[in-house]
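Exercise: predict the fold of this chain.
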Amino acid sequence: MSRRFDTISFLSDYGLADEFAGVCSAVIRDLAPHVSVVNLTHSIPAFDVRAGALALARAVAYLPEGVILAVVDPGVGTDRKAIAVEVAGGAGVFVAPDNGLIAPAVAIAGGAERAFQITNPEIILNGAGGTFDGRDVFAPAAAHLCNGLPIEELGHELDTSLLMPSAIPLPREENDTVIAEVLWVDHFGNCQLNIGPEDLPAGWGPVVSLKLPDALEPGTTAVRSAQMSANFAAIGGGIGLVTDSLGMFAICLDRRSAAGELVLDVGDQVVIAQGEVELVTTPVTFGR
């Protein structure tokens, strides 16, 4: 017997100014009135599949059993597949475009066990145009799964090994440094890196140097010292390298925006080295 769900966790780049997210929720309500929709976020930057993938990966461990509906779909209307991916023995099903959006979250949830392309015409709504698959394909599929529709009735089965991966950058070591990248800038201006404490060589700290893009001279870099800190208050007036709530390092300032003051953004490279920045001093002799 197929499992029924009572929760859909919904992430998209639809924003809140337009009706897109609300219409998807209305379709779900009409087809599956018993379902609660958890709106994770609809503020993913438009078309930014990587940002959506990272947000979903950050959240997935805390989501209840049910359907995860994720729509960041710059390829809508093309031949990209609409898919449903079963994980955790059927305790969860991801419904999304096959563009890498769900790949990291699926991996965190234990990996794809079965995957199906959503092609059943009895599921898909006959909406006008071909540019709103959130309304016409993904939301109805999510709702029908919550009603107990077996996942195999959505369409034909896919080889899980052929699902699109996600392009998440990996850190690398080079010449006694660790080269990292800013993955995410949060609401407070903290800059999450793609490394955690285990990615730095043993014995590094408590002070490291960070080579960052220089805000004053575009195209050049500046080197700053950072203190490995347990929390924001421990940073003091300098720069902190804090292990955030997801176990990753983040460049932070205490009650200030690191992104704003250091002019950091997603995709910027950060080169980390052991030790404090050595200040250069020039001796001066005062005359009479």
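Check your answer against the key: The two ends are 96 Å apart (CA to CA).
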